[in-house]
Design a protein that fits this description.
Elements lengths: L3 E6 L4 H4 L13 H16 L6 E4 L3 H13 L7 E3 L16 H8 L1 H9 L11 H21 L3 E6 L1 H12 L3 H4 L10 E5 L5 E6 L3
Parallel strand pairs: 1-4, 2-3, 2-4
Antiparallel strand pairs: 1-5, 5-6
Organism: Aquamicrobium aerolatum DSM 21857
InterPro entries: His_Pase_superF_clade-1, His_PPase_superfam, PG/BPGM_mutase_AS, Phosphogly_mut1
EC number: 5.4.2.11
């Protein structure tokens, strides 16, 4: 076995609560979101996990989640890299819209295609495949080398950026990945083999 990769979707954001498409917009965490992030950190602390480096996006909801986790494991000052490669999928013209309002405007079927298809982007935005096109190279060239050196790495990011990363890690098909659901504030621990394949996966649900 090589190293350990911990993935965590940010805690509930203000726009999650309001049922809005968020994408690259930057709302903060709700009170529940802060609690979810702290609880994620507590679960990781209970496993006595210590990180060598942390990665997060340029969006505050992921950064706050990352910091809550590092505080909980006693590593508040850990080197943390922020990069837009890990940002949420860009929802383009849907960003900021209530999901019910979007269905009223474009129709439920069309909005479902934009939300759940693999390669159909919303107007002015990204598909899941587009999101993967920036996440995968960043993981391969920047994050994975740390894991393959035997380090323990935290990635606090977003539902779709993490789904695309999980697709690569687990070798999921385009049909399989669209059904992957990630709960907010729930750590997923991957232990990787030296050849970068997954040796084990554990979901630390509450």
């Amino acid at each position: 076995m090589s190293g350990t990769l911990v993935l965590v979707r940010h805690g509930q954001s203000e726009w999650n609560l309001k049922n809005l498409f968020t994408g690259w917009r930057d709302p903060s965490l709700t009170e529940l979101g802060h609690s979810e992030a702290k609880a994620a950190g507590a679960r990781l602390a209970a496993r006595e996990l210590k990180f060598d480096i942390a990665y997060t996006s340029t969006l505050s909801r992921a950064q706050l989640t990352c910091q809550h986790i590092l505080d909980a494991v006693g590593q508040s000052d850990l080197d943390t890299v922020r990069d837009e490669a890990l940002n949420e999928r860009d929802y383009g013209e849907l960003s900021g819209l209530n999901k019910d309002d979007a269905r009223a405007k474009w129709g439920e079927d069309q909005v479902h295609v934009w939300r759940r298809s693999y390669d159909v982007p919303p107007p002015g935005g990204e598909s899941l495949r587009d999101t993967g096109a920036r996440v995968w190279p960043y993981y391969m060239h920047t994050i994975q080398p740390h894991v393959l050196r035997g380090e323990t790495v935290l990635v606090a990011a977003h539902g779709n950026s993490l789904r695309s990363l999980i697709m690569a890690l687990e070798g999921l098909s385009r049909e399989e990945v669209i059904n992957v659901e990630l709960a907010t504030g729930v750590p997923i621990i991957y232990r990787l083999n030296a050849d970068s394949t997954v040796a084990s996966k554990e979901v630390l649900a509450g």
